Amino acid sequence: MPVRMDIGHVSPSRFFFLVVALLLRVVTAHAESEPIVLASGLETTELLRMIGEPLALAAGLPPKEVRFHVVLNGTLNAFALPNQHIVFHSGLLLAVRNRDELAGVMAHEIAHLMAGHHIQIDSLAKKLSVQSMIAAAAGILAGVASNNGQVGQAVITGGMASAQTTMLEAVRRRESQSDTLAVSLLARAGFKPEGLAGFMNRLAQQQHLTSLPPPYLMTHPVSTERLMDARRLAEEHPPAVPLRPDQAENRLLARAQAMLEAETSDSPDQMANQLRNRLRLDPGNPALSAALAEALRSAGRLPEAESQLNALLKGREKDVYLLRQRGMVRTEMGKYTEAEADFRAGLALLPDHEELRYRQAFALKELKKTPEASRILRQLTAQHPQNPQYFYLLGLAEGQGGHEGEGHLAMGRYFMLIQEKKNAQWHFQEAIRLLPPGSPEQSIARNELAQTQKMETPPSERKKKKQRVNGTR
């Protein structure tokens, strides 16, 4: 049944948020069927952190609270989500030519957060994992980019031909405002303000060359006027602080791009052969050499990948990226002792790094060193309560260690985060049965179970139930 909206008394910006909110509710129902694969390369996450933290500081946002994610998807796209999550498709990272172009795109998305342009439906967002939010938002943007009439008709019906114009005008205003904020952020954070204009110029060229632009251009249209404004803003905002050195970040960008290229290849074997040929022309290139090891790992050629990484690590024993990469290969080979040692060595270089801690915990669990694995995972779940994979591994570790009640509690939270309420309820019920009566953990399990049951009851029924309890009608 179509959803009707009365926009007679709704401002254009508010209308935009209402439409996106409704679309999110429509698409979320199908989110689990959409495979969302996040990039796993430490090079990529560290690159975004190194560039993103000074930009977040310049924006007045807590750097640790702005979270960057990369989806392995070849399309050129980026978007902001509730609770200060920013998502990039790997295609966009592969399209930038240098550190300052990437900083320009990141500053633009952070500007959306500053101005409150992201999807403002916090009550729903709190019930979704990051992967679910990404899947839903990606579904929305795919519908917009493909001009999917069915999606539009499911939300906006009844002679509302002006709705698309209203939304487009709202989008243009948001983009112009974000450009202005982004250039100011770049100048204050020590990046070249012209980086944004440079990337936009190539986007504009691509926009003219294709009849169906990538999703990013559908939601971030580049007009001649907008491009000229970006150039003017860059001239008016010279760096307010000394420019940050870019050599190390450009090297890391090249390495991240090579790894993303290997990760997203449809044929890892062919990619490995291509990389070998490129290395003949550029022997010793560290980015290509690491990407070759990744392609070999993706192709299942694990002994070759390990041998490649062993050779790369000679003389580079403190290269955290190679240590982590070899640890992953050894994990897949079942060499958990060696893998754990690689992750531990990596953590000595990047103390408390979230992903390295998770991978170390996995290796420890496989080695049946359950207490240490559970300790790490309890810390991770406390620090990152919206990450389902941490709860899943904690559930396995607790069960392996004989703490079945705690294991069921963790599994209940895992299923809650991936929106499987029936499974979540069963695990919470088992946790209540197995945990010591009156213990804090049992109380938590009871509260979590009550939350799942509350979510299943429609608001109207909850109101009627409350009225009956209070003796009113």
Structural summary, described in words:
The chain has 473 residues and is mainly alpha-helical. The chain has three domains: 12-236, no CATH class; 265-367, Alpha Horseshoe (Serine Threonine Protein Phosphatase 5, Tetratricopeptide repeat), CATH 1.25.40.10; 373-473, Alpha Horseshoe (Serine Threonine Protein Phosphatase 5, Tetratricopeptide repeat). 69% of the residues lie in helices and 3% in strands. It is built from 24 helices and three strands. A three-stranded mixed sheet has the order 1-3-2, with helices on both faces. Strand 2 (78-81) and strand 3 (85-89) form a beta hairpin. The chain is globular and about 65 Å long.
How large is the count of helical segments?
24
State the helicity in percent bands: 55-70%
Q: Summarize the helix and strand pattern as letters.
A: HHEEEHHHHHHHHHHHHHHHHHHHHHH
Query: What does the main sheet amount to?
Result: 3 strands, mixed
Oligomeric status: single chain
Q: Main sheet: which strands, in order across? A: 1-3-2
Instruction: Decide which structural class fits the backbone.
Output: mainly alpha
Radius of gyration: 24 Å
Average pLDDT, all residues: 80
Q: How many extended strands?
A: 3
Distance between the termini: 31 Å
> Low-confidence parts lasting 5 or more residues at pLDDT below 50?
1-34, 120-124, 143-168, 468-473
Work out the strand percent: under 5%
**Overall morphology:** globular
| Total number of domains | 3
How are the SSEs placed, and which strands pair?
Layout: H1 12-28, H2 42-58, E1 67-71, E2 78-81, E3 85-89, H3 90-95, H4 99-115, H5 122-125, H6 130-145, H7 149-155, H8 162-189, H9 194-209, H10 215-219, H11 224-236, H12 247-263, H13 268-281, H14 286-298, H15 302-313, H16 320-332, H17 336-349, H18 354-366, H19 370-383, H20 388-400, H21 404-417, H22 421-434, H23 440-456, H24 459-470
Parallel strand pairs: 1-3
Antiparallel strand pairs: 2-3
Helix pairs in contact: 1-6, 1-8, 2-4, 2-8, 2-12, 4-8, 4-9, 8-11, 9-11, 12-14, 13-14, 14-15, 15-16, 16-17, 17-18, 18-19, 18-20, 19-20, 20-21, 21-22, 21-23, 22-23
